[in-house]
Amino acid sequence: MEQYLLDFDLKVMAPELVIVSAAALLSVMDLFLKETASRKVIAVLSLAAVLAAGVFAVMGFGHPPYQILGDTYRIDSFSLTFKVIILAGTALVLLLSLHLNKEEIETREGEYYYLLLTAVLGGMVMVSSADLITLFVGLELLSLSSYVLVGIRRKDLKSNEAAWKYVVLGGVSSAFILYGMSFVYGLTGSTNLFVIRDRLMQALYSGYDLFVYLALFLMVVGFGFKIATAPFQMWTPDVYQGAMTPVTAFLAVVSKTAAFALVMRIMLIAFLPVFSPQISVGVEKLLMILAALSMIAGNAVALKQTNAKRLMAYSSIAQAGYILVPLSTLGFVLFPSLAYYLLAYLFMTLGAFAVLDVVTREGKNEELHVFAGLHQRSPWLAFAMSVFLISLAGLPVTAGFFGKFYLIINAIGREQHWLAGVMILTTVVSYYYYFGIIRQMYFRSPASLRPIPVPWTAGLVIVVGVIGTIGLGLLPDTVLQSLGKIDWGSGFDLAKNAVRQ
Amino acid sequence: MSLDPSLMHIAVFFIVGIALPVVALGIGRLLRPHQPSADKSVTYESGVDPTGDSWVQFNVRYYLFALLFVIFDVETVFLYPWAVVYDSLRKEMGLFVLAEMLVFLLFLVIGLIYAWKKKVLEWK
């Protein structure tokens, strides 16, 4: 009788269950701890929960795709890979947050950590869903937690402004997504992505193609906001600047990765018929234009930035454009190259934010000149930052170079030479602002010669970032081959145990 | 693919819903005599002479109670249908159906504990 309790279902959801119980327990624990007590224990427990969830996610590999909860939720290699990436990103963000002191979070330390947990839970739901409703619930869980995280410094004016903008624009983008989803539901009568795929084909052939495109267009607008591609990027610099640096790193890496997974799921399962060349080439063009606009706008506006965090925000807009390239061209090595780039992006971005955090914290200033003479003050810090910047710019022997190389191969393989051209040209433009920081570090004289104190947790993040960035750059083929061995296709086939066949 | 006939019903509801007040108020405006006087145009307050401004400030703390109310609202919305089909689900799934609802309630209780500890229930 009680077989349902001991069903396989609970085991495959282990990573999610670990995170959700940790978030619940820690929120209660935070309430019953004394006001004055340190919340470091909550931070450490959150980190342990994220690591445990990561271990469970890794252990889940090697099974055929499995669908649970009435086909709304699926566990497959695609979702597990993305879960591992976002959990790794969250673990590094948590490490980076450990040295935040009470004043900075205005005694809201406990909340900060369990909100990070609920945010990553939302991300995990997003990458694992096969149903519009669960996808949306995951998206909102991630978004709502992020809104609070951005505004967690209640007395900081910039933080308030950032949170307010993020809430309003995030709400608008959610509305766009929902409106698009409602058209999909109206056309197909189902929220299940696989059912939608079959019925969307019928809708296309029986004269409802305009509605299919309208739905797709509305959803792309909404997703454009969430992954911060031009022309929907305007919230990014303000939010990235107003949030605390670890939160910014979380938004730039974890949120973006999860949102990309969600876009890939919806596009490559539900809207696959629309992609087929007999029907239309317009959809691919739409995504390509978004990619090109993001690369151009992000890199062009970054040239004029003087604030380090705003510069990173525009850089992340440009990176979103790069990541969209293989998806919009449906390149034949789409998944391995995308996963490679997302990994590279994780290491170099989190590393750069970690250095940025310790340097701006010491300088009490976020302008680019806080980096002046970093080479004389802390040579190792300057070296690490150079590695990250060179990787972000995409120069050889770093992960960023091979990542971009593989992305370009996708575009050239599909004979989208103009897109590859835009990518190469904008990359060259980006050298200017990335090397602007390197110039500050090596060729400007510092305000003081005092070495910059690096808390060991931030130091660990930096070391992991450097090892990851250079390691991926030294062994690109090995990594790419092992990523290629992941059964990506399984993420887009109906599982054998599906209820609806 | 054709539009579901039930969508037609929804459309009819929409049209009637919009038309009804428009027609009723419109006809009323055409039929009624129009003779305003100072007494007539006073705001109606149950027969009492209105005093003060209608721009009264409500205490912002009310919104916390409204939010708390939502917790219990949601609870009822999900508990009611669950209770209705409980017997048949129980036969099929066993005690799992009870455990699931307890998990749901647990999370709502955590919300209540949170509000309690954050002194939302105290009127200062």
TrEMBL record, chain A:
EC number: 7.1.1.-
GO molecular function, one term: NADH dehydrogenase (ubiquinone) activity
Enzyme class: translocase
InterPro entries found in the cross-reference section: NADH-Q_OxRdtase_suN/2 (IPR010096), ND/Mrp_TM (IPR001750)
GO cellular component: plasma membrane
NADH:quinone oxidoreductase/Mrp antiporter transmembrane domain boundaries: 129-429
Gene Ontology biological-process annotations: ATP synthesis coupled electron transport
Keywords, alphabetical: Cell membrane, Membrane, NAD, Quinone, Translocase, Transmembrane, Transmembrane helix, Transport
Main location class: membrane
Segments passing through the bilayer: 12-33, 40-60, 80-100, 112-129, 164-187, 207-228, 249-274, 286-304, 311-332, 338-359, 380-406, 418-435, 456-475
Function (record text): NDH-1 shuttles electrons from NADH, via FMN and iron-sulfur (Fe-S) centers, to quinones in the respiratory chain. The immediate electron acceptor for the enzyme in this species is believed to be a menaquinone. Couples the redox reaction to proton translocation (for every two electrons transferred, four hydrogen ions are translocated across the cytoplasmic membrane), and thus conserves the redox energy in a proton gradient.
Description of how the protein assembles with itself and partners: NDH-1 is composed of 14 different subunits. Subunits NuoA, H, J, K, L, M, N constitute the membrane sector of the complex.
Protein name: NADH-quinone oxidoreductase subunit N
Species name: Lihuaxuella thermophila
Gene of this entry: nuoN
TrEMBL record, chain B:
Enzyme Commission number(s) from the entry: 7.1.1.-
Top-level enzyme category: translocase
InterPro entries named among the record's database cross-references: NAD(P)H_OxRDtase_bac/plastid, NADH_UbQ/plastoQ_OxRdtase_su3, NDAH_ubi_oxred_su3_sf
Keywords on record: Cell membrane, Membrane, NAD, Quinone, Translocase, Transmembrane, Transmembrane helix, Transport
Membrane-crossing residue ranges in chain numbering: 6-31, 62-83, 95-116
GO CC, one annotated term: plasma membrane
Keyword NAD in record: yes
Pfam families: Oxidored_q4 (PF00507)
Single annotated GO MF: NADH dehydrogenase (quinone) (non-electrogenic) activity
Keyword Transport in record: yes
Primary subcellular site in the record, as a coarse category: membrane
Record's function text: NDH-1 shuttles electrons from NADH, via FMN and iron-sulfur (Fe-S) centers, to quinones in the respiratory chain. The immediate electron acceptor for the enzyme in this species is believed to be a menaquinone. Couples the redox reaction to proton translocation (for every two electrons transferred, four hydrogen ions are translocated across the cytoplasmic membrane), and thus conserves the redox energy in a proton gradient.
Subunit organization: NDH-1 is composed of 14 different subunits. Subunits NuoA, H, J, K, L, M, N constitute the membrane sector of the complex.
Sequence similarity: Belongs to the complex I subunit 3 family.
Name used for this protein in its record: NADH-quinone oxidoreductase subunit A
Taxon lineage: Bacteria, Bacillati, Bacillota, Bacilli, Bacillales
Gene designation per UniProt: nuoA
